[in-house]
Design goal:
CATH topology: Growth Hormone, Chain: A
Number of strands: 0
CATH class: Mainly Alpha
Distance between the termini: 50 Å
Helix content: over 70%
Structural class: mainly alpha
Number of domains: 1
Strand content: under 5%
Mean pLDDT: 85
Length: about 400
């Protein structure tokens, strides 16, 4: 019996369209994820004042800012582990639906808070926790589905498009706040509406064949403890977290808290400008790094080729502190962003190290543990604020240590 070339071409076209739909959905999901996490930062100051919690520039204002960021980070940590486990046990597609639904409800409730609500500060913190919890699944589950759908030789292109486009959600949030003067309530409403649209757009996404095949196997699925029973997996797990730590130091303090950070060096900085420039550089760097890894056919070589020759931006911040806001905006911020552009490489590498039975658990845990590092960083700054030099030197150690552990 002769094969039907037309049928083969049709199957190939259907597969290709499903891949592009998945890439689009994952990219939009990460775009909304990134948008929300930065909206929470740029709108934080206005929300604290307008909700009657504290006056701008006071210690109480900074305390609330750290409280809200810590609540969000705690949600990211818990959500990263739980959604990862459930992604292996119940399916990737279900987690994509659950995460965006929970997020949409949380952010829309965030938008309608008023000073008259009892314990409004606690309510705001809880909603930021829930928002962080839900968004923990967005990027990682999308990357898992791409890894299980695309071939190894091309999946780097898929993750490159997802991350390079997705981080521009941060830019949009900062631009809307800085240049269009959109209020914090409307910024949250925009995020909620985007979540609703994304929820409907995901209707056409199918569960991956890898997961469907794994359902019939007897292998233990979605066990976080499996990571600790295998030395190779545990070593990669720890090394990946160390490697990603410098990215989220940059995001957590010099970028999200640029105005406060700049004061330590005698600078007056508009907090949103570093965000815009940092994430534009990060998007470009992620694109170039992933493209290089595809050409070199190696995630590790792609990272080393692009990022190791760069002067470490944290070295500049420590040993060559600037007193010029323009230099901070246009030299330090893009340097930090470009040096952080291995985020997609790191997550792709992570998801390729494990089998289908714990791929979601592993891939979702690593980046969200990294993203929750704001908690220990903020504790350091709270208790050692007078010793900012020492904090930066500790960062330098983390950066060097993580570079030594690159993709081991």
């Amino acid at each position: 019996m002769m094969a039907n070339p037309g049928a083969n071409q049709s199957d190939s076209a259907n597969t290709g369209s499903k891949v592009w739909l998945l890439i689009t959905v994952a990219a939009l999901g990460y775009f909304v994820d990134a948008y929300d996490l930065i909206v929470a930062s740029v709108a934080r100051g206005s929300a604290i004042v307008e909700l009657g919690l504290a006056t701008a520039g006071t210690p109480e204002h900074k305390s609330y800012a750290f409280l809200f960021e810590n609540a969000q980070s705690a949600g990211i940590l818990l959500g990263g582990i739980l959604f990862g486990v459930l992604g292996d046990r119940l399916g990737r597609k279900r987690m994509l639906y659950a995460s965006i639904f929970i997020y949409t409800v949380a952010i829309l409730l965030n938008a309608i808070l008023t000073p008259e609500i009892p314990y409004v500060g606690a309510v705001y913190s809880i909603l930021r926790f829930v928002g962080g919890f839900a968004l923990a699944a967005e990027l990682s589950i999308g990357i898992v589905m791409i890894a299980e759908t695309m071939k190894a030789k091309t999946r780097g292109i898929g993750t490159m498009l997802v991350v390079s486009f997705g981080v521009l959600g941060c830019v949009l949030a900062a631009v809307l706040f800085e240049f269009f003067k959109v209020s914090w309530q409307y910024l949250f409403i925009i995020g909620g509406v985007a979540g609703l649209l994304l929820l409907g757009f995901r209707y056409g996404v199918s569960e991956t064949s890898h997961y469907l095949n794994e359902e019939n196997q007897r292998a233990e699925r979605g066990s976080f403890l499996l990571i600790f029973r295998n030395w190779r997996l545990l070593k990669i797990f720890i090394s990946s977290i160390l490697l990603g730590a410098p990215i989220y130091f940059f995001v957590s303090i010099p970028i999200k808290f640029a105005a406060d950070y700049g004061k330590e060096f005698g600078l007056t900085i508009a907090g949103t400008i570093p965000i815009i420039i940092f994430y534009l550089a990060l998007s470009l760097s992620d694109f170039i790094a992933n493209f290089a890894s595809q050409m070199l056919q190696s995630r590790k070589k792609g990272h080393i080729f692009l990022h190791h020759p760069l002067p470490r931006p944290d070295c500049r911040v420590v040993f060559l502190p600037t007193n010029d806001p323009g230099e901070y905006f246009y030299i330090y911020s893009p340097l930090m962003g470009f040096a952080s552009g291995y985020w997609a490489l790191l997550i792709t590498f992570t998801t390729e190290q494990v089998g289908t039975n714990i791929r979601s658990t592993y891939t979702t845990s690593v980046p969200n543990i990294i993203r929750s590092l704001f908690i220990p960083i903020s504790i350091l700054l709270t208790f050692f604020a007078a010793h900012i030099w020492n904090v930066n030197l500790s960062l330098l150690y983390w950066d060097c240590r993580s570079c030594l552990g690159t993709f081991r």
